[in-house]
Every structure is written in C-alpha cells, then in structure tokens.
Amino acid sequence: MKKNMRGAFAAGAIALTAMLTFSGCASDPKPTTDVLDIWVDKLEAVALEGSAAKFEEETGIKINLVIKEGDPIEDFKVAGPAGEGPDVILGAHDKVGALVADGLVAPIDLGSKKGDFRENAIAAFTYDSNLYGMPYTIENIALVCNTEKVPSQPTWEDLKGVGVALSLNGGTGDPYHMYSIQTSFGSKVFKRDADGNYTSELDMANGGAEFANWLATEGAEVLDPESTWDSSVAALADGTKACWITGPWAQGAGDGAIDLKSGAYSIYSIPSVGGQDSVQFMGSRGFYISSYATDKLYAQKFVVDYVGTEEVQTAMFEAGGRIPAHKAAFEAASEDPIVKGFGAAGVKAEPMPAIPAMAAVWSAWGATEIAILQKKGDPAELWTKMIADIEAAIAG
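The structure corresponding to this sequence follows.
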C-alpha cells in the first residue's frame, strides 16, 4: 500500500512540475492572487526587498516578506494545511523528505537556471528524483589551520605532526565532524540507488571495520574523546593544535580570537586518512514553494526569475554572509576567505541525507565511535553491533 501511494504521489509531482514550467514565457497566465507571503529571516528580508518591489511593479502581485526567526518549519506544518501558511518558505534542505512526505511542498522547475547552481546544492533539494527547492547557500566543514605553522595544504601525516582538534562533545561523540575521516575509508552512511537518491540501506559496513580499527589505534592517539568546542577553540588559539576540523561558524570563536579573515588562519580541504576521498556532509538553505500556495505559478516565477539571478544571489550573500550556492554569485564573493576556503573544500561534499532513516543513526553512531576510541571492546565487533542497532531502529 505504501509503495502504491508513493508511486501515485511521484506521478502527481511530475505532473505538477510540468504545470510549473512556464518561467520566461512571452505571455504568462493571469495571476489568481494579488499577494504572495514569503517566510524569511531578517537578513533574507533585507536582501529580497529589491526583487520583491520589481516583481510587484511588473506583475501587480505584492510580495509580503514575513520575518520568522529560528526554524519555522514546525509552524509551517500546521499553518500550511490550514490555509494560513506562506506561499514560499525558506528553510534547510534536510527537511525536504519530511515536507514531501507530508505533502507540504510542491516540485519546482528551475529550467535553464538549474545549471547556475552547484550540483551538490541541487542534489540537496532533490527527493525521489524530483526537485523541491531552489538552493541559495551551501555549508560544510573544512580544515582551519594556523597559517604560520601550516602554510599549505597538509597531508594527514602533516597533521599528526602539528596536531588537529576535533570536538567530540565531551564524550558523547560527533559523527558529523568525524564523517570526513570515516568516508576516507570508503564507509558512508547510506547507499544510493541508480538515480543517486539516498536509500535507507546502510553503507557503514563498506570500509567500516578498517575505520573502526583506525579509531582504536591511531585515532585514539590523535583524538581526545573528552574534547569540546571550547577545548578545540582554545587549542587552536594557543597553538597547542595547529589545525581544527570545523565549519564557517568558527568565525569569531573564542571572543574573536579565531578570525578567519585575518590571514592568521588558512582554510584547507580535509586530507584523506584512509586512502580514499575524504567526503564531508553539506547543508543547504533554499526556497520551498508551498503545496497550499495561493498561486504556485507566480510563486515559482518570483523564486526562479526574480531571485534566482546572480545579482540577487550576490545581494543575499552580502546581507547574510552565507556562502552562495549560485556559481556566479560564489565567484563574485570568492575574495572573502571564508567563501573561498570552505567553498573549495566542499566541492565533493555530499548533502546530508534528508530521508526519515537519518534520524535513527546519530545516537548509536556517536556512542560507538567514543566506545572504540576508549577501547571498550573489539573495534570491528562494536562497529558491527552499531550497524545492527541502527538497522533495528530504522525498521522500527
């Protein structure tokens, strides 16, 4: 039954996408609304004021920029079906699976502009082979190093010599930051189907034993299971560790001691530990069109034709400082060392899986990595048990 419902939904999504493919037509259909509500944060509202005014001037439809701080997705889940939600909402890509499953968002067709955005950002908003959002940001971790001590891209052997910090949340683990090391052994969280969609089948066994053995040996010598954000900041700031595996949110850490724009620190790719590509998770934020929008066609027209341009995407970067997913806007912002460094380091980054099964992996994953680092059992056996526990959690 679930399979049939999923197939029916997919067919409907494809049909709706076809309906929405009108961007750029010589004569657009008559609007069915005179106002579109868009839920944004404060910085996004500032960046979108110009395109909103232009859209109203050319279409007669007012764009009402409604400022919502934090994550308004939970409010959207209630307000959308009640007819009180936005026509467009900005949010993180990792919500896409749940939003699609609940029937809350409509497919979007970027047309020829799809190629203007980074491929992994497009992939982030793709679910069951359909695109449900237009990305505007990318975010991933990289390697932040003291420039004087590490003047060029280091190897893992280099890092062992100068020290590398990685917060493990005071003994609870952090699979998110450890993932770039794990993947270099070939071990990824989920398998993908022939179309590149994440499945709920774990891929942790592939290279997992090798990674687990590394954790118990070299990893236990290099990484501190009790490390925290504060201890990592302090280690980098005082020179105890020359490098830190972290994200752009490190800017200004330690009461401004970590200034990634000062030249004192350089941003590099995370080197391979296990011999294969080191691949980290990527997050993206973008524009969703509500399934309950008063006029889906014009909601898409605003997003794609008025917001999906280099000029507006650059304005969004200038307002919020978030690394652009739009290729030309990224290039325009690449003089910023944070954009340049993390953007280059994240070329191979893969979207955080936005499937329901992802919620089942974190607890056992982090606890197992800590247990292996603390030598609480045979590493391969602990890793195998972790996989079984996660599979059981996914199965419900």
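Residues 169 and 228 are 5 Å apart (CA to CA).
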